[in-house]
Amino acid sequence: MTTPATYGDPIAVTGMAWDTALGREVEDVWQLLLTGADGFREVPSASPVRNPLAARLADAVPDGPLRHQYVTVTAAVARRALADAGVAGDPELHPVLGTSLGPHADSTATGSLYTWAEDAGRALGTAHRPIAVSTACSAGSDALSIAGTLLRTGLADRCVAGGVDLLSPAKRLGHSGMGVMSAGVLRPFDADRDGTLPGEGAAFLVLERLSTARGRGARVHGILAGWGASNSGTSLNEPDASGAAGARAVLHSLAAGRCAPGEVACVSMHGTGTVTNDAAEAELLRQVFGRAPAPVVVATKGALGHTLGASGAIDTIVALLALRDQVAPPVTQLRTAMADFPLPLPIGGPAPVTGEFALNVTLGVGGFNTCLLLRRGDSRQP
After folding, report:
1. For the whole model, what pTM was predicted?
2. CA-to-CA distance for 61 and 49, rounded, in angstroms?
3. Which of 67, 138, 292, 327 could form a disulfide with 103 if both were Cys (CB 3.0 to 4.6 A apart)?
4. For residue range 67-90, what is the model confidence (pLDDT) as tens digits?
């Protein structure tokens, strides 16, 4: 069933759930982020890696092949998002599922890149086959923008969208071999940053048109007000150092949501802790905000690790919670901000957020830049 295109009907987020290195309950993890906690611990590796630290899920992943783990974690988190939205068991749901490479980074014998998503759709019991998204670190955000497009054009009435990425030997070796793995701790936007550290996680959100949500009395966590994307076209692994490509994605999302830069209250940045990525993001922010009132920056990878294709969806939930409570968590492990960083960074404690809009920016390997514009939803429920 589809409905006519409804471009004037905002896209509401009515359900959200995650599984992270700090836990799986949304409110519990949020409170831990506000304290500056992190989920890193030493994880044994059969091959030498630069750093044994990784942010594994707080609750153990299921036993079995990696593909089975992806399906199980995806279905479990998506079901909790649907329960949060009050629509568990909706057969007309459209799943949009993102990952970097899923189980394929470690094996060429896992079939099509689509197989894990198809299996997850079966586990959810949906009538519609899932859309699978594999745009590296932007996959979770891209899944949400695709869901927004399906809803806005009337091709779907409700979607569950987000991303998942699990720790694996190939991913750890990849980070180590490319020279982007920190020798110490992950310090986003720190003057002494020296690299990233892997994490694993999953996050899924339920999206539907606002009129539908209000019609059934659903709580609205927030509004997906706009989205934009670009590709740097400069390097497979390195970001566009000028920041121009990322800035185009941000400006497009602002234009789509009819939001001026000065109206943005906080910006959730990719913040991988590598020298080149964080420098490119600083340039991006400088180009977008210039002399506009400065929004506070949110960056979660010092707490949760680099969760690759899940990071955009995880950070969308964080941005919605920051808008709801009007507070930004401290940037975990950040001690001294890099020179000339253009926006405020919360160091050592939370920072106030004042306003109705947030941005969530991801810069993925392969030049995939995605930005989501979010608007504040309902207040915290008693």
Report:
1. 0.96
2. 22
3. 67
4. 899 999 999 999 999 999 999 989
